[in-house]
Amino acid sequence: MQQQLAANRVSLNRVVAPKPCSARRLGVCRASQKGKTDTRTTDKILPSNVGFKWDGSNLRWVRDDRYAGQTSNIYIQPKSGSAYVIWPVVHTLLTEKGLRSVKPAEALKMQKQGWTIVDVRIEGDFEGQHCEGAVNVPLYRFVQGTALWDNIKKIAMAGFAMKATERDPDYVATILSRLKKNQKVILCCAIGGTLDTKVRTRPDKYKEGINDPDRSFGRESRSLKAAYEFFQAGWSSSNLVFIEGGYQQWKYDGLPIATSDE
Q1: What pLDDT does 70 receive?
Q2: Please, are residues 179 and 185 in contact by the beta-carbon 8 Å criterion?
Q3: Beta strands 135-136 and 75-76: pairing type?
């Protein structure tokens, strides 16, 4: 079921197979968005010279520094929705910026000290349950277009009893309209994700962790993708963190939760 969903997402989102490329990209990054041009700059958070390629057989990004230094578009233009920055670039940027995770208990303590928990999940999930006191600034929204591929995406996801979603194309503007500039923010999504590139299940035996091809660029999540946008909006690692394990871990730990009806 999960493999079928993953394959479905790839077929809908990828116009062409991404070419091997480097995370270093100077100046203005551009990508066609239904006739428009994305002119967001990455100069403020320029990543290292890290090479990578798309492993289509395993549906994953693989680090391969043989491609370091080669220029290529760092955006993917879906057939439905707006262009977005590919995950290896996001991971590299966040790692260099020193973005850190906090455990749910620490996040709760920070919240009491004035930090704001920003839940980036879709609005419907937030309304169901969320960390008490959190505000919702969803990274994704339900598909709003009615073009051919928008409708195909809606029909495909309806087959799984799900609603099709797409990235908020103006997320930076949304952030700035709902939050104070440089407000202390704790990002929360369903799973949290990780920037760690190693498996650390046996610290007693493997102190440095174990290399895993599936973790070449950590584990992507909506919190981490949103963190990239927050950096673009002017935040830094001094006022931006994310919850380790996300809302699922928060709830499992028995920390305060709320619903929008309360």
Answers
A1: 63
A2: yes
A3: unpaired
Contact 193, 248 (CB under 8 A): no
Q: Which stretches of the chain drop beneath a pLDDT of 50?
A: 1-18, 22-47
Q: Which uninterrupted H or E stretch holds 225?
A: helix 222-232
**pLDDT (tens digit per residue) in 114-125:** 999 999 999 999
Look at residues 157, 139, 105, 142 and name the one whose alpha carbon lies nearest to residue 220. Answer: 139
Helix, strand, or coil (residue 194)? strand
Q: Which of 231, 130, 216 is nearest to 182 (CA)?
A: 231
Instruction: Give CA–CA dist 28/4, Å, rounded.
Output: 36
pTM, two decimal places: 0.81
**Distance between CA atoms of residues 171 and 183, nearest Å:** 16
Distance of CA 44 to the CA centre of its chain: 19
Closest to 241 measured CA to CA, from 224, 222, 218, 221: 224
